[in-house]
């Protein structure tokens, strides 16, 4: 039993799976990149002028310009009074209105189904059907997540069997997306790497 003054959560009491977690987005490469950026900011001479963080797929952080249409639709969905504005093209207003009408309460602040907004799942299914040469994709088989991380975690957790003395193993490509190894470690499973050569 711990006394009232004794800390309950310490590095020693932290779940060992969390302590063993190494996520390259926050791992050694990330830390070194941050150090180099600080050095450059502080005027320390390097054989380069800036650090390009290409490990995340964060296109906007590396200078890619956002797609105007998407930004305009998001703006209108977030503030529907913009539907009355002459500042936005009609196609963005039309798309925003379709999305708003598909939302409960005509608000993007409303909860969606756990699998995602139906109209978006239907458009995703239509895209996949077209991409795959007409092979039907059922929108009820589309599960939208808030990003790759959430989706990968859901799938890996779904594939884990009941805890046994032997941990589950997941085959992942090497080099790999850092989230794979981090999540596998978090779930106390084993990484089985195969090389892409």
Q: Give the rounded overall mean pLDDT.
A: 87
What is the total tally of β strands?
2
Structural class: mainly alpha
What is the CATH architecture descriptor of the domain at 66-111? Answer: Orthogonal Bundle
Unreliable residue stretches:
none
CATH class of the domain at 66-111: Mainly Alpha
Helical stretch count?
7
Report the β-strand fraction as a percent range. 5-15%
The dominant shape is: extended
Main sheet, how many strands, which sense, barrel? 2 strands, parallel
Whole-angstrom Rg: 23 Å
Describe the structure.
The protein is mainly alpha-helical and about 200 residues long. Among the domains are: about 65-110, Helix Hairpins (Orthogonal Bundle); about 115-145, no CATH class. About 40% of the residues lie in helices and about 5% in strands. The protein has a two-stranded parallel sheet with strand order 1-2. Helix 3 packs across helix 4. The radius of gyration is 23 Å and the shape is extended. The model has no long low-confidence stretch (mean pLDDT about 85). InterPro entries: ALAT1/2-like, PyrdxlP-dep_Trfase, PyrdxlP-dep_Trfase_major, PyrdxlP-dep_Trfase_small. It comes from Brachionus plicatilis (Marine rotifer). Its cofactor is pyridoxal 5'-phosphate.
């Amino acid at each position: 039993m711990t006394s009232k003054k004794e800390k309950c959560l310490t590095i020693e009491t932290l779940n060992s799976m969390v302590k063993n977690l190494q996520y390259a987005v926050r791992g050694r490469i990330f830390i070194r990149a941050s150090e180099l950026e600080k050095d450059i900011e502080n005027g320390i001479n390097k054989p380069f002028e800036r650090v390009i963080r290409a490990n995340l797929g964060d296109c906007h952080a590396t200078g890619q310009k956002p797609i105007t249409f998407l930004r305009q639709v998001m703006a209108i969905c977030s503030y529907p009074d913009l539907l009355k504005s002459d500042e936005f093209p009609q196609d963005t207003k039309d798309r925003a209105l379709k999305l708003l009408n598909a939302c409960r309460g005509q608000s993007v602040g409303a909860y969606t189904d756990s699998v995602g907004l139906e109209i978006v799942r239907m458009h995703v299914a239509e895209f996949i059907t077209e991409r795959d040469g007409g092979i039907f994709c059922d929108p009820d088989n589309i599960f939208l997540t808030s990003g790759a991380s959430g989706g990968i975690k859901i799938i890996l957790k779904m594939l884990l069997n009941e805890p046994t003395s032997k941990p589950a193993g997941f085959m992942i490509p090497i080099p790999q997306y850092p989230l794979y190894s981090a999540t596998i470690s978090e779930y106390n499973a084993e990484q089985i790497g195969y090389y892409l050569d």
